[in-house]
Amino acid sequence: MAKLLFQGHGSFRITSESGFVIYMDPFAGEGYDLDADLILITHEHFDHNDLSKVKAKRSTRIIRPADALEDGRYRSFEVGGVKIEAVEAYNKNHKKEECVGYILALDGVTLYASGDTSETEQMKTFKARSLDWAIFPTDGKFNMGPEEASRCAEMIGAKHNVPIHMAPGQMFDMGVAEKFKADGRVIIRPGETVDL
Description:
Blueprint: E1 3-8, E2 11-15, E3 21-24, E4 36-40, E5 56-63, H1 65-68, E6 69-70, E7 73-74, E8 76-79, E9 82-88, E10 100-106, E11 109-113, E12 133-137, H2 146-156, E13 160-164, H3 174-179, E14 193-195
Parallel strand pairs: 3-4, 4-5, 11-12, 12-13
Antiparallel strand pairs: 1-2, 1-14, 2-3, 6-7, 8-9, 9-10, 10-11
């Protein structure tokens, strides 16, 4: 079973059953001890792309927004048996042409990592995909707040919904996490791991 380690802020690590290691938006917290097989960057803000935190192998694949969004077309990839699909991410603080979210499929599980965003048009199509996990920013300043994230979670209908990116400059805020009122809510504190 794949495992997700929440590192704090917008950073997390996924490790597959076979030991394939994925880092998403490295910046915050601990848990950078495993060498990366894949690094996914949702956008180029400093608090989402600190590659100096991650130990890369010669074979490590890095996918950045410039790779994932080409001439307005969202691309798909397969790396080490993991399927990666870039999707829309945008709001007044994050330009549509510079940001992406990702839908990952590994070990029989699908996970939507929204990146920094507010509600997008494409989210309306996700319910039909029967996603297992969805991860949303909830800071309410640079992205949607917990109320809007709750509405997006309801629209998408993933089995498990996780609030992250809760307050500027903070790793985690339980008060914000508890305002996220999605069905299947899973609150993960920095340093905690969940089975996907």
